[in-house]
Amino acid sequence: MAFKTDAPLDIKSVFYIPQVNVEKFGMGKIEQQLHLYSRRVMIQRNSKDLLPEYLLFVTRVVDNKDLFVSVSHENMKDQCLLRNLNAMLTKRVIRWLSDEAKEDAKSYNDFHSNWNLCLKEGVVMDRFNVPAIAGLLCYPSSSAADKEPISLDPYVERMSDTHDTIYHLVA
Question: Nearest-CA neighbor of 22 among 117, 96, 94?
Answer without folding.
Answer: 117
